[in-house]
Amino acid sequence: MNIKLKSKFPLINNDDVCSFCNKKKIELPREYIEFLLQINGGIPANPVFTWIDEKGQESSGVIQYFIPLRHYKYDLCYYYTVYHNRLPDDLFPFAADPFGNLICVGCNSRKLGEIFYWDHEYELDKIVYKVKYNKSLSDFIDHLQPQEQEETELDRINKIVQNGSFEAIKNYINDNPQRINMIYNDIIRYNKKRALFFILNEKGCQRGMMCAAARYNNVEMLDILYQKGSDINENINGTPLMDAILANSHDAIRFLLDKGADICQKDKTGRTAADIARMFSNNQTRKVLQELIKDKTFLKKMESAI
Predict the structure, then answer these.
(1) Is the pLDDT of residue 151 over 80?
(2) Of 142, 169, 186, which residue sits at a domain end?
């Protein structure tokens, strides 16, 4: 198996894999276990694969990342918890594309080790597509192709927000108001306050804005959103406090706790902010939390792995 990665996560060991399989009561193909032990997820240098629809026509897909077992918020525990009742019982997700679709490996005797493409838009139809090179994981990996470097819509958004005027941002949104959900992340990232006020005045607070401001440690934007009525405890795939802890955004952590962020909320996998701190944050972030939070249960849970 010849796998090239642009970035990767810290490695795991066999005990990590056994613990996960025992807790979830699943049996994974040996080749996939060896793949996890070799790289534990990451972003592939060659991300393009080919899948085949029900008419036999070929289409291209792109892998955003191979899902790690640990060391990332959206790890295998997250994907298993969120998707195991949505995927066929004999499929297990090992990679994700940028659009919420999954690449899966077969986990029973009939499909064991074969590779499939699951499109969430056809979830209710229970359609799962084969990929072109599907007989094994190594067959699939060895036939991944490089991606042509065409400018994507996200690239265009980044240029408009980073380098463009307020009028350019405004016109981009007015051309299609649904673009707000694509552009607000970069507006917060590059601290474009006038553009943020435009969105808030025209469309109101959008879900996810508080989390974005927390990730980028942008307290000024957090305060604007808070004053405009954004939910400080919004919970999409986690709360703003969880995202601030995950990103080691100390100023955002201080702001959120000062405004009454709930330290007991759970994400879709059942993790609390203390779990996120224990699993993903650095020592300095844990020290900040120790200074600000006096809840003994939280601190004990967070410190258990320090």
Answers:
(1) no
(2) 142
Mean pLDDT of the chain: 88
Same domain, 187 and 225: yes
Cβ-proximal residues to 216 (8 Å cutoff; 6+ apart), any chain = 188, 189, 247, 249
Looking at the structure, do residues 159 and 297 belong to the same domain, yes or no?
A: yes
Only one residue has tokens 């918890």, namely 81
> Beta 58-62 vs 65-66: how paired, if at all?
unpaired
- Residue 104 belongs to a domain with what CATH number? 3.40.1580.10
Place of tokens 């959900």: 181
Q: Measured between alpha carbons, how far is 84 from 93 in angstroms, rounded to an integer?
A: 9
- Written as six digits, the tokens of 83 are 């998707």
Choose the final residue of a domain: 113, 142, 171: 142
Phi and psi at residue 91, in whole multiples of 5°? Answer: -120, 145
Note the pLDDT tens digit of each residue in 221-279: 999 999 999 999 999 889 999 999 988 999 999 999 999 999 889 988 888 898 888 88
Cα torsion 154, 74, 53, 110 to 10°: value is 170
Number of domains the chain is built from: 2
- Residue 238 falls in which region: left (phi positive, over 0), alpha (psi -120 to 50) or beta: left
H or E element, residue 76: helix 76-83
- Its domain, for residue 262, covers 153-303
- The verdict on 118 and 67 lying in the same domain is yes
- Give the range among 19-33, 151-165, 168-182 with minimum mean pLDDT: 151-165
Show the beta-strand stretches assigned E in the chain.
Answer: 5-8, 42-44, 48-52, 58-62, 65-66, 91-96, 102-106, 115-118, 128-131
Which residues on adjacent β-strands are paired with residue 88? none
